[in-house]
Amino acid sequence: MTPTKIKSTGRNTVDTLPIPLSPSTKRTMPKTFESPKRADSIRYKKTSVEINKIKHLQRTPEQLPYNKKLQQKRYYNVHPKNKTHQRNVEKEIEQDVLLKRSLVATTTNVKQSVSDEKSNSSPTRTVIQDLRVKKTVLDMYSKVRKTFGSLGGGGSGGPIYGEVTTKSFQRIIQFMKTHCELNENSSFIDVGSGLGKPNFHVSLDVNVKLSVGVELGGERWWQSMILLKDFVPEYELNSVFFAHGNVFDMKTLNPFSHVYMFDKGFPPNLMEDLASKFNNSIASKYLICYKKPKHIIELYRFDVKHLGFLSTSMSGSGEGNSVHFYMKNGKNGSTKKNVDDNKHLQMLKQNDFGFKVPPVPSDSIDSAPVAYAKSYGQPGMKLLHENKLNEYTKWCIEQVGINDSTRNKRRLRSRRQRK
Fold first, then answer.
1. Inside any domain, residue 219
2. Which of 52, 172, 155, 38 has its CA nearest to residue 105?
3. Cβ distance 401 to 371 under 8 Å?
4. Which has more pLDDT, 120 or 321?
5. pLDDT at 193 over 70
6. Which letter, b or e, does each residue of 383-403 get, where b requires 16 or more Cβ atoms within 10 Å of its Cβ?
7. Residue 53: enclosing H or E segment and its boundaries?
8. In a domain, 35, yes or no
9. Strand order, beta sheet including 258-261
10. What's the structural domain count of the chain?
């Protein structure tokens, strides 16, 4: 064997060839090394998180330390759970009521002291469970939707326009029955009636003496007349009338005992005019609108007392609004009635129910899409008072203008003649 060679360096070191290590000190590596898969790592993470959750389970109040108990008490005192819990319970109750459709209405008892009666203080919110709506009313709403859509009359593209849902307006009617003396001898007016859904609903549900809707927009008034000409013979409506006019042209609100209006977008001058007419009208006793008492009583000077309010939802948008109910005060602020029921009934016994139809708006923007019939106005009210439904239906058709429109029929030549 040849001896190993030794190399000399300038640093007085000796470099030799590497000496083989012993088997005990030798570092061995596996021939093949496989890294953990991604799925295995995710599983490991999931299992680790679950184990940590199990370790940190919520303790019972007995197991909590004393400092933790004090911390919870302080938190609950600052952030009480009563209001939120109550709202959640009310939502669950409403859902159960919608499923069960209970027939009995429950209202919260409104307690007021003598001082509250003298002052115009607002009572608490009244909660009325959803009642079962009559089949005729549901059928009427479905036909209106089929004819003009869910938000009828192109309301989405027009000015401020509101349509209350069927169940919400049924609660309004129930409140008026229990607290506002709405019955068969009542007369109802809707200021800004649109398609006339509230007028149809009140007439079909309560069968009031008179249900009138006054609408400024000519297109919506014309659409309401289209519905009226079909609903009069179908449901035998003998109390619904729609007038195309401006409320400023009306002298009084007689003979209407219940005045309803969706007044969210009404200007101040219109509200002041309505306040003076309502206060001076002998028959007008109840006001149903969507403005708060501080606006109705303090700002616009309606001589009324606040009875209560309900929460409603609007069709199409689902927006929530509160409808307020008011009753006219007596003389010198007393609680006695300032409305003579005998005069109210005497007005309804007249040939035209004691209601003078306002003139047609003079502005061309508010004009109807068809020419007005010669019989528009008081002749329709007389037919309605005399309960001549067949003639009244013909009168409605004349207002729509179906008979005036003529079609030119052209005879098409057959192919054989062309050849």
1. yes
2. 172
3. yes
4. 321
5. yes
6. bbbeeeeeebbebbbbbbbee
7. helix 38-55
8. no
9. 240-244, 210-215, 187-191, 258-261, 286-289, 320-328, 304-313
10. 1
- Asked whether 193 and 225 are in contact (CB, 8 A), the reply is no
Q: Are strands 304-313 and 320-328 parallel, antiparallel or unpaired?
A: antiparallel
**Hunting for tokens 């008011």 — which residue is that?**
326
Cis amide leading into 23 (omega within 30): no
**Which CATH number fits the domain that encloses residue 279?**
3.40.50.150
Does some domain include residue 38?
no
Alpha helices in 129-217 (DSSP H): 135-148, 166-179, 197-206
Helix (H) or strand (E) holding 212: strand 210-215
| Structure-token pair, residue 357 | 């139809």
What's the 3-state SS for 239-258? CEEEEECCHHHCCCCCCCCE
Q: Which residues pair with 384 in a beta bridge?
A: none
**Domain boundaries, position 133:** 114-400
C-alpha–C-alpha distance, residues 312 and 326, integer Å: 17
Q: What pLDDT, in 10s, does the model give residues 63-103?
A: 656 666 666 666 555 555 555 655 665 666 566 555 544 33
| Cβ atoms within 10 Å, residue 272 | 14
pTM equals 0.67
Residue 103 within any structural domain of the chain: no
Q: Which of 261, 266, 249 is nearest to 288 (CA)?
A: 261
* Pair type for strands 286-289 and 210-215: unpaired
